[in-house]
Amino acid sequence: NKNLNFLNSKRQYNDVNRYLTISLFERKLLNGEKCLRTWLVYSEKKGCVFCGPCLLFDRDNYSQFSKDGFNDWKNAESRVSQHENSTKHKSNLITLKERANTLGTINVSLTKQLDEHINYWENVLRRVVATVKALSSRGLPLRGHNEKFGSTQNGNYLMAMELISEFDPFLAEHIGKFGQCGSGHTNYLSSTIYEEIIQLMADKIRQKIIDEIKTVKYYSIIVDSSPDISHVDQLSFVIRYVQENGVPIERFLQFLPNTGHKAIELFDSVTKLLNSYEIEIENCRGQSYDNARNMSGIYSGLQSRIKELNPLIEYVPCSAHSLNLVGSCAADSLLWGCLLDRLNKASKQLQSVNIDVSVIVDIYDSLIEYTKSLRNTIIFNEYENKAKLLSVVKEYKKSRNRVRKSFHDESRNQEQDFITNDSGFLEKLEYSDQVLADKGLPSIKTGVKNQNSILVMPPMLHNGRLTEEEVLNTYNVASVRIHIERLFARFKTFNILNKITSDFLQYIDNILLMCCILELEHLISSTEVNSPLFKINPSGLAQIHGLEM
């Protein structure tokens, strides 16, 4: 009664309009306490008040409170007090209470019926929520081709409900009663209800994550976009923070569909999402994205725009993404299982949640040193020997490299790189060595410079003239070159290397070094430039500068 609208209770007294007031429903006792007049009932339709007990049990209708209703608001307080103190009213009130104690009131029956109805659907929802939570936590689809019980194509959700009903009589009875009722009837078994349940659970979990973030205060953001199976670009938003127990954790927050690929569009999406959950950007301390320009650009990329809002937000590129690109490129050029295995292990370590920046640097340094160790000649010989053990063909001849015609859109640096890099020439250079080149290939210039060596170019390549010192240096270098080329020719002519057994292969570098030393000694002691190091003596044996072989 107290919350009803009393406008219809208007009654005019001469020039004054009076209405029913809420104070009439309260009674002040002699000790000053106030109690409600629960027996007084207001009718909005008539704009009058009635006495409930008298209206039910007063057959004589001795007063307005039990007949037509009372609306004399000018004398309301006195008339209501007079009625509630009357013998007839007290008798009717006692009769009502006695019947209520004996038979019970109608509201008790209605309340009991309502409680039974609520308990029934709560039991149904408990089973539905448990099924939806189990299926969604495993990433399983819920819906099938149809929504009919007993069908083999009704999906995982209805299949699970049927399975539970085999051991749950309550659910079996519910499915039998409401399973095939069709649309428009409440049964909590349709696709719309479990989609709503999934959304409610997601909102609850998301709110729990947000509360944790606000509690720990500081956090970092991880953002990346990728198209889903329906070709809709989804921007995934992940927040990394340290829990109160000191353990770092990454929490997925939300997908943002169709945000665009421009840096300003991504920036607006990230800031709007943080503002919608009332997560302060001032407490952010880190950001991590892939190496795309719109993400990692130092001038207008997403990381630079967010850093303008908070200079304390440090940008760390995604190490796993960077290593994945390096590993993919390495896999295209290398077939060595050990290197690929090392890359795979490093990639898994970089994806760990508990990893920090210092550990990432150590992993990269270790990987770089390991890769460098695979590039020397000894390691290559090991792989070559292992390949020969596994292969049926133990020997292979080195054929001449075919010269392929270059197309108009290709660079000629590949052939030049073979001369400088693949041949191993640069690895033999030491600090301040002088290199005489008769062709000015760009790769030769760059390679020699990187090795801190000196490149000597003939002046005629740049239309210059030789000085006396340059003529002497060119003559000395050319003399050495002639004898070294002649040395290699003698090796081929007499098949010297073919006579060396496999046990002496490890000493081949020392043998060649000794030959070069003998050649230099021969040049110093001989006055003839064309005097050969290898000669055939009258007995038909090869002789190296006076030594018979």
UniProtKB/TrEMBL annotation:
Its cofactor is a divalent metal cation. SUPFAM superfamilies: Ribonuclease H-like. The keyword Ribosomal protein does not apply. GO terms for molecular function: metal ion binding. Keywords: Metal-binding. The keyword Metal-binding applies. SMART domains: ZnF_TTF (SM00597). InterPro entries: DUF4371 (IPR025398), HARBI1_dom (IPR027806), RNaseH-like_sf (IPR012337), Znf_TTF (IPR006580). Residues 24-112 form the TTF-type domain. It holds the Pfam family DDE_Tnp_4. Signal peptide: none annotated. It comes from the Eukaryota. This is Zinc finger MYM-type protein 1-like. It comes from Aphis craccivora. The lineage of its organism: Eukaryota, Metazoa, Ecdysozoa, Arthropoda, Hexapoda.
